[in-house]
Amino acid sequence: MYWLFRNLRFLFLASTMEFVTANDQCRTEVNIQGMALKRSVFRRWSVAAPHLCDVKCGQEIACQSYNYNRKYQICELNNRTKEARPENLLSAPSWFYIRRLNGRAPLGSIPELPAISCLEIKASEGKKTISGKYWLDPTGTGKAILINCDMASGDMDECKYNISDCHVNANCTNTYSSYKCTCKAGYTGDGHSCSADPCYHYHILSDANRKSSYTTSHPDPAFCDSSFLEGWYRFVGAAGTKMPTTRVPAYRCGTDWSGWLNGTHPTVEDGKVRRTVCFSDRSTGCTYTTYISVKNCGSYFIYKLFQLNCNSRYCGTD
């Protein structure tokens, strides 16, 4: 009879987990049957009884709560509570969930237990959580840093502490509980990925002998664009402001086979378009053609050009 009484008493204690603190104040955590906190488990053991799982939790500074499986005697330690991650408390037959009873470190209070945000700390520790510096790891790098949290709003300044994922060529603007990334002038993208806007990054073509009105003088050697590096180019100055869109006869532009745009220029709304360049022969045809990209930058055009055969050249006009 004594053995039965002792074991019934143990089961009652394991179920309610009531302890008396140093101040003789009774604190109770009631387990939640048939539930377990998922995606927060950092340790797993086989233990014979629930109170041993509680002991294991007490030995781990990062333990916030635990799950216990009575059927298979499995103990899982969590680094979060259901208050911090309510969406992760899921149905789990044979399991129960319970928050750590004694000595639980508040989330974000130590570098071994960083939160992902100020709002997560506020959810975990309650509305009375005071503003101040807390340990956070917002990007999940494993490196906790001290960040000032405004608990009235739950906000932190990701931009100030350089913990945003904005691109190196983007500006970071703090917003409530988040931030906004915007590519800097001369770059395009969503702020998280920014690439150079060709309207601000291009090569200049300015030679007067490149203009379509320039007649190639023989026996002087003809120019050619055989040394061109692939990239964006803009016609300026004596070379003109754009590529001609009407036929340019051969032996113009300082070369033999004059290159002109066989198509219209795009509008700004068209964005980058593909166009054909014809290199005129001695008659009315093309010695050969090639494809280039063209972009309207508002007040001027740019062209993505490639290396050509000799003696060929891209022509300019006004």
UniProtKB/TrEMBL annotation:
<keyword id="KW-0245">EGF-like domain</keyword>
<dbReference type="InterPro" id="IPR024731">
    <property type="entry name" value="NELL2-like_EGF"/>
</dbReference>
<dbReference type="InterPro" id="IPR001881">
    <property type="entry name" value="EGF-like_Ca-bd_dom"/>
</dbReference>
<dbReference type="Pfam" id="PF00024">
    <property type="entry name" value="PAN_1"/>
</dbReference>
<keyword id="KW-0732">Signal</keyword>
<feature type="signal peptide">
    <location>
        <begin position="1"/>
        <end position="22"/>
    </location>
</feature>
<dbReference type="InterPro" id="IPR000152">
    <property type="entry name" value="EGF-type_Asp/Asn_hydroxyl_site"/>
</dbReference>
<protein>
    <recommendedName>
        <fullName>Uromodulin-like</fullName>
    </recommendedName>
</protein>
<dbReference type="Pfam" id="PF12947">
    <property type="entry name" value="EGF_3"/>
</dbReference>
<dbReference type="InterPro" id="IPR057774">
    <property type="entry name" value="D8C_UMOD/GP2/OIT3-like"/>
</dbReference>
<dbReference type="Pfam" id="PF23283">
    <property type="entry name" value="D8C_UMOD"/>
</dbReference>
<keyword id="KW-0677">Repeat</keyword>
<dbReference type="InterPro" id="IPR018097">
    <property type="entry name" value="EGF_Ca-bd_CS"/>
</dbReference>
<dbReference type="InterPro" id="IPR003609">
    <property type="entry name" value="Pan_app"/>
</dbReference>
<dbReference type="GO" id="GO:0005509">
    <property type="term" value="F:calcium ion binding"/>
</dbReference>
<feature type="domain" description="Apple">
    <location>
        <begin position="26"/>
        <end position="102"/>
    </location>
</feature>
<feature type="domain" description="EGF-like">
    <location>
        <begin position="155"/>
        <end position="195"/>
    </location>
</feature>
<dbReference type="InterPro" id="IPR000742">
    <property type="entry name" value="EGF"/>
</dbReference>
<keyword id="KW-1015">Disulfide bond</keyword>
